[in-house]
Amino acid sequence: MAMAAILLLFLTLFSNSKADQDFDIRQHLSTVTRYGAVKDIVDSSFPSSDIPDACTPLHLNLVARHGTRSPTKKRMRELEKLASHIRELVKEANYNNVSLQKVPAWLQQWESPWKGKLKGGQLDRKGEEELYQLGIRVRERFPDIFNEEYHPDVYPIRTTHVPRASTSAVAFGMGLFSGKGSLGPGFHQAFAVTTESRASDIILRFFDSCQTYKDYRKNHELAVNKMKEPILVEITSALVKRYEFKFTIHDISSLWFLCKQESSLLDITDQACSLFSPTEVALLEWMDDLEVFILKGYGNALNYRIGVPLLKDVVQSMDQAIKAKEDNHAPGSYEKARLRFAHAETVVPFSCLLGLFLEGSDFERIQKEEPLNLPPKPPQNRKWRGSIVAPFAGNNMLVLYSCPANFSSKYAVQVIHNEHPIPIPGCDGTDFCPFEVFKERIVRPHLKHDYNTLCNVNLDHSKQKPETSKL
């Protein structure tokens, strides 16, 4: 019996050790995750549709987030304050002859890599590369769509006014049209990128033009922080004991932010990230994912209903492509792709409008306008992960296909998330949906919500609690 107990303990420890070794923190940074770390993480149980050879791509819609970016000026100042506080704690420990033996040497000497930087938030070189390579892959995947001579009416590229989004659009376009032009030894193609003003952009920055949503978010950020607090308290207590160092909750919050920045921007995972165990990282990731869920996603229907102008724009582009085909317009005279570059606050609500990343019967509950439960806490599995829903350069593509007249549907839509087909609950869990079914089941239920009514009329949204309020 004793031998069996020892063997069981050994196997448990070995299993946990193996799991820790296999744990890749770069895949667990919520929406600060780099695209390459997660783009090929897919649901292996979902068989993507076998699209008939006779069906050909007719039009493509892309809604993409900007690529990996540097921290904002505000967050850079936060890291400098963290460095200052760590120095104070080290100085105090030395003054009181308290051992720092368990405190990592790097932390005792740490300075923020962004110390003294005057600007922040811009697209990083890694972000440029993400979008550039995405552009190349999209063209190679859909040669029938990108086979026309460039014209801004055939391949319109739209972006928000924010530089990291417009720079992402440029990087994508350079990849998409590489070798197609006549400029320089690389035969680059000049192309147009259009943007709306911040005040009037209700297609890509609908969240910024909606006072109702801004009021809701402002009024619930404090509640979200309260939800985070128990996790931060628990992990702070663990790290204080582990390193015998007087970390505060604010320190731990800043160190988690530093971990995400070091990993995504600097490829450093053995400093701030190494302070946390895989179990603690899972909790911190879940904490961030809750915030995304409540303030940008399914946590309140207002979050995604205000994205209806974008959904309308997508469907309108498909309708126009179908009309051009039905009217036998000459090649090169009509739009073949509409390419958009924006933010997590755009991609997350758009994914919700499509019904992606829902658990079980959640789609039916949304159709009935019933509240959803929050994403389950680790170690339970969940579909809602910020690192998958909207990593840097995260994207949704909706590809319109034209099929022969003898098929059940003449036109169909395939939904592709981060370059992989994804099941659509409203289309019986497939990724390839007859266009009329897509419009009836996915689009039409949302159209009863008018943007101007939601955002300009006082519907008392700002006083509502999140529709998901139970852990």
What does this structure look like?
The protein has 471 residues and is an alpha/beta fold. The protein is built from 16 helices and eight strands. α7 runs antiparallel to α9. The longest helix is centred in the middle third of the chain and has 33 residues, at 211-243. Mean pLDDT is 93; it is low at 12-16 and 457-471.
List the defining traits of the structure above.
single chain, 471 residues, alpha/beta, 16 helices, globular
From the alpha-carbon coordinates, what is the Rg to the nearest angstrom?
24 Å
Sequence of secondary-structure elements = HHEHHHEHEHHHHHEHHHEEEEHH
Spans of 5+ residues with little confidence (pLDDT < 50)? 12-16, 457-471
- Look at the helices and sheets and give the structural class: alpha/beta
Number of distinct helices: 16
**Overall pLDDT:** 93
- N- to C-terminal separation? 40 Å
Which geometry do the CA atoms define?
A: globular
Helix residue percentage: 40-55%
Strand content: 5-15%
Largest sheet: 8 strands, mixed
| Beta-strand segment tally | 8
